[in-house]
Amino acid sequence: MDLGVAVVGGGAAGLLAAAAAAARLRDSGRAESVAVLEAAREPGRKILVSGGGHCNVLPAREARARFVSSSPRRLVDRFLDRFPLAAQRALFEALLGGPLREETASAKLFPPSNRARDVRDALVADARRAGAEVRASMPVREISPREGGGFDLRFEGASLSASRVVLATGGRSVLAGGADAAGFDWAAAFGHTVRPLVPALVPLTGSSPAHAALSGISLVAVVTARSGDEFATVRDGFLFTHRGWSGPAVLDVSHVAARALAGGRPFAVTVAFGGSAEEWDAALRSGAGTVGGALRRSLPDRLAALVLAEAGVAPETPFHRLSREARREVVRVVTALPLPVTGTEGYRTAEVTAGGVALEEVDPGSGASRLVPGLFFAGEILDATGPIGGFNFQWAWATGRTAGEGVARALLAAC
Description:
The chain contains 13 helices and 19 strands. By secondary structure, the protein is of the alpha+beta class. It has two domains: 3-199 and 352-413, 3-Layer(bba) Sandwich (FAD/NAD(P)-binding domain); 204-344, no CATH class. Strand 1, helix 1 and strand 2 (34-37) form a beta-alpha-beta unit. Helix 1 packs parallel to helix 13 (391-413). The mean pLDDT is 95.
């Protein structure tokens, strides 16, 4: 065999998998080569661009209930349990030489230097210290099992073999320099169930001139998306754009709309501004003044005008002339304004890919395929998607470490 372990993909999960595998083999005195095979010219491309170049490396607090997967939630928990959040934080503080910087309002953790490049460089250095090679500009084009065990990996005009393979090829967003997220196709060819893939944590789009006229308005709101039994609701930042809607609240529910669009199913996305329906009702009953004035005290002028236009109420209508039916319609619109969503911005701006290899077919204790001996999975290729805020890195670190240690144990057991 040319390699003991080939880690295909040099992103967050792949780098941590290589470091963990090489360290475990080194400490056990086993001379097995471990290599990261990265298609792009440098590893960790997604790390470098995350958080606007600052890298929200982890969340400050757990939020496991917000992970989305077609597999049972208990399986998501079992994968995350292998490398708990506190241990992940300790690892990065050791690698980066100091406490992670917490953004208190959002509960996000960043590197002490606030530089994403420092995170990427620390991971590459850690893998190399452990004894792993990091080979860039090596796009794998084909993986096939060898008779008698192991795998053949083919490149443009070259090939090598490996005793074990970790697929950490990532998703379809933020592709760079030869990367093609082919891991999904390889997994399917190996017999794995690959749940439908859609862009997630992605802005939503629509062609409403009335909404486009509000481009640039940003505020905290509650966004809700529903499609059949699938439901998501989030209170966070909301932004009108010239193409549709964005902001953390929209990104976190976008997977519901994306799945429905891909499957041709009906869905609805609504947004609630300000307080509750009861609070808005009270505000439209009390005191002197107009309906427009009441809304403008809580909402930007252009947004207040949109709400009243949707409700069919003139802004200069005084409270004492507002009928009960009209008041209820204003309250309904301001607490559940329909967003005329017709699409998403796609993988071009999506932060992650939802869907992937079914968790039921992967051992959460090792990342090993339950179908193909010697094959392991880590990161975004697996069917689990976290919300915005460092949770998808949490998943990558947990599954990467698990797969690295799991593949090393498998090699050691084969002695």
